Amino acid sequence: MAWFRRAVPSPPTAAAPAPDAGDSPEALRASIVAVNRMINSNAGRLPLRAVVAARRITDVLAEIVNTSDVRPLDVYATISVRGAVNDYLPTTLRTFLAVDKDLVAVQRPSGFTPTESLMEQLDALEGSAFAVLQAAQAQDVDALMTQGSFLRTKFSGSDLDL
Predict the structure, then answer these.
(1) Which of 3, 12, 108, 112 could form a disulfide with 116 if both were Cys (CB 3.0 to 4.6 A apart)?
(2) Counting beta carbons within 10 angstroms of the beta carbon of residue 89, is it exposed (0 to 12), middle (13 to 18) or buried (19 or more)?
(3) Rounded to an integer, what distance in angstroms lies between the CA atom of residue 119 and that of residue 51?
């Protein structure tokens, strides 16, 4: 009586999630270049010190990405760089650029002018970028120390040698 049985569909197989192409060092570098273009194209509308600070941030972010030439970027570094170049830095700059130029030096109820607020935000982004760079560099130093310990153990005479 097999003809009364319904065929049970097999469950769909779940494909492994593909890595996000936006996480590759090449994609991160391209995003940094795009943000630099944005900064440069708006340099006449941004305070000079903001242009310098924003470019310093992108330089540090590029330095973080360049650590991938030695070892793959860790997840924290990738997320931090991607967030900074695709959201935090461009949003900060666009928000300032949306302010009427006659109001950028007018103190707000917060006690800051829009220009001061911009600089405070850029300082925070720069501090965060430096912290990620230091973590990436510390990871490289740790890897070097681990390699050194391995080589000393591997190639030094054993304590058991007579």
Answers:
(1) 112
(2) buried
(3) 10
